[in-house]
Amino acid sequence: MSYSFLFPGEPAEFDPGFNGPIKKRGCTDIICCILFMAVIIGYAAVGILAWLYGDPRHVLYPRNSTGWFCGTGPNKDRPNLFYFDFLKCATSVNVMATALNGFQCPTTQVCVESCPGDFSALFVDAYFKKPAEVFNQSLCVPSVDLKAPGLVSPIWLACASYLFFFSLLLVLGRCLPDITALGNIPDNFANVPGLPSTINDTINVIKNGTGDVVNGFNAREIGVRIFEDFASSWPWILIGLLIAMVVSMLFLLLLRFTAPVMVWVLIIGLLGAGAYGIWHCYWEYENHRQNSATISEIGFTTNFQVYLQVQETWLAFLIIISVAEAIILLTIIFLRTRILIAIALIQESSKAISHMMSALLYPLVTFVLLLVCVAYWGATALYLATSGNPIYRVVALNSTTSGCQSINGTVSCDPQNFTSSAYPDCPSASCIFIKYNDEGLLQRNIFNLQIYNAVAFLWCVNFVIALGQCTLAGAFASYYWAFSKPGDIPMFPLSASFIRSLRYHVGSLAFGSLILTLVQVVRIILEYIDHKTRSAQNPCARFLMCCLKCCFWCLEKFIKFLNRNAYIMIAIYGKNFCVSAKNAFMLLMRNIVRVVVLDKVTDLLLFFGKLLVVGGVGVLSFFFFSGRILLPGNTFRSETLNYYWMPIITVIFGSYLIAHGFFSVYNMCVDTLFLCFLEDLERHDGSLQKPYYMSKNLMKILNKSNKAAKTDRKKK
Predict the structure, then answer these.
(1) Which segments does the entry list as coiled coil (predicted)?
(2) Where are the domains of the chain?
């Protein structure tokens, strides 16, 4: 049945010169192509500026409180960083800001040659001693000279007041405590009288083994153990992923033989599940007929188990399931021909892939391009976040004197050449890193450049996905429009389609990607607004926000569907994006029932395929990594793993990605052959002048045939 009266459009007309993707075509959507190239050039310029002015060492390497990196320059012989009060690191509120600031926790930090290996703290008698007798010069801010006259103890911000470290936990050059040795802390180190409350709190947290700091460092220990598990099990993880790849490939290739059986088994299983539900509801209904209260007697209650003891509840379930079962059964009866068409197209897609095995490898190209986009975006964001020269100011550790008050935080300094003796009226003066310069032209526009970086990244990602869809569509269209398969299939159809897409249709692919990117940007803005205003929203505002987010989610899904089919038409006919999108949409709407049936049957099969691959490989990996399966001659033992579930999760997640990559190619093949099939029905009538290109199985289902084939049979 055709729905052309609802979506008229213009059915495709017969073209005697058409026999597949058009070879003679021109560039499409040139304006959008120029805009996309301009954005790419601008994106490259932003990356260059970020590379020139940014310094990722702020994040990757430890840096002391004066802003100098450990292991370079004046700290060449001091590669490690020591924190005076690491509790403030673990309980820092803005974790992201701390990370982008090179783990500059709100506590004094110094570069040390090696991490201290003992635990010590200051007692009350330290207040009556000279600083040089109490503190260790190597654990003080470099600009502080403990032998300088006039320096009064204790100087808590300039030198470490207690030590806690065990050398096995060096993380990225930072001295971090080993929580497993908590019991080694002497009792007299907790609640030392006279110490500042913050230091006492820190010692108590360490002693008791509680608080965010312990959880943070326990997380680091877990991370080390997980890394050890990966290091010992990675060959077997790769074998598991290889098995997932082989199973996915075999599943797709065997669909040409197993698709009819699998589809009808799943359909019969669905009907059987519905029939069992009807029987069970009737059985429960009969059991509660005698001693059962009514809904009116129970009223409203939050204990839903009570409703399951009511006869009326099971009667309602019985009616609902019976109606659903009847609808499904009638739908299958009336749409059986379209289900057969969907099965035939799925079989034809499997046959097409068997003739173009290279198409199964194309997701690797898409993955590499997406990886380049993500790496460039991440590097640019990192360099932009660390741009700007560091600013140092003279800060007085003891600002009670008038000489210190006049210079405290107002005088710039150079940490390399700074000495506290230059300020005789303020012996506790120190050159401290304050912030990065944010007054330059680049620094004032960092936020705008980060926004540009994010939008350009989304556009590039969507373009890469669009390029892959258009390339695969062109290759599979070459298969369908080959009259004698496989003899008429052109050489290297995948490579030819890729070259055509890049040579002629960059503008069209960029146009569709831009529309999708704008919708995604709106969705991100809505999520940001919702996150920032959630606490101040009333029910009406929350409802409105929920409706907006739902509408734009649906719009994004629709645009992805429209773009996908537009790229297929672009790959075949070489027209611009708007014309291709309109033609594809009208063609699909004229065959809306076939679209729905094919979509659901394909989704059902692919879901079953993913479940088979991921579930099968996941169960196999569970039995192997848990030690329930022992291979002869295998040196790997599950007892050597700290957390055997981590390799299992990795194999399951990797298997899903592999299955998704293979099945996305198959899904694109089904969609392409379906559009070609609809075009074939509208263009041709099976005559000698207009023969069908579809397979014999499809013609048999539709009771159609080519007259040329009939003539040949009569001659025989």
Answers:
(1) none
(2) 61-195, 390-436
